[in-house]
Amino acid sequence: MLIREAVAGDGPALARVHLDAWLFGYAGLMPQGLLDATTLERRTATWQLTLSRDRDPREKILVAEVSGAPLGFAHVGPGRDADADGAGELWALNVAPQQWGNGLASNLVRAAHDVLHRDGFDKATLWVLTANARARRLYERHGWCTDGITREETIRGFTIPELRYTLDLRSR
Fold first, then answer.
1. I want to staple 72 with a disulfide (CB 3.0 to 4.6 A). Which of 4, 64, 124, 172 is the partner?
2. How far apart are CA 57 and CA 45, in angstroms?
3. Each residue of 76-88: pLDDT tens digit?
4. Spatial separation of the C-alpha atoms in residues 123 and 172, rounded to whole Å
5. Distances (CA, A) of 124 to 37, 75, 157
6. How far is it, in rounded angstroms, from Cα 116 to Cα 122?
7. Structural domain for 113, as ranges
């Protein structure tokens, strides 16, 4: 496995990973209407735009490759919350379902920690679907702790309850 920064040509592969992870991982956890509205075409367009736009130099998209195929990603950057106070943020982590349980997600989490710390962040936050026990266990294994802050994210008209986690990057 290789972890590298994303390049412009990764858009279609990242879209496929993102879609598959959502459809498989969020089945029964998110409204089915939202999952049904999440298409490969929409994900591909979003990823191509993300990879082609100017970004803050601290925003990074880390790609995990297995045998040359992108099968996971972590998207990190400056914290986006009003109370971020200089924290970094793990914006997204998605892994192809066929790779779940083999350590790829853990390797991406560790790489995200390293990149955030190297970019000058002493602490980090992330938001996770409250009902996503699998993801929460992954983050907790890597030292993340909930700070008790919750929010309701609205995605295409659907309300999604989320819970915030924090991590002290100085201890990593």
1. 64
2. 22
3. 999 999 998 999 9
4. 10
5. 31, 13, 28
6. 8
7. 2-171
CA distance 59 to 44: 19
Answer yes or no: are the C-beta atoms of 131 and 161 closer than 8 Å: yes
pTM exceeds cut of 0.85? yes
Which residue positions in the chain have pLDDT lower than 70? Answer: 172
CB 47 within 8 A of CB 39: no
Contact 24, 97 (CB under 8 A): yes
Tally the domains of the chain: 1
Spell 86-105 as b/e; 16+ CB within 10 A means b: ebbbbbebbbbeebbeeebb
Do residues 87 and 167 touch, judged by C-beta distance below 8 A?
Answer: no
Give the Cα separation of 5 and 111 in Å (integer): 11
Report the pLDDT value the prediction gives residue 157, as an integer from 0 to 100. Answer: 85
53: domain CATH number is 3.40.630.30
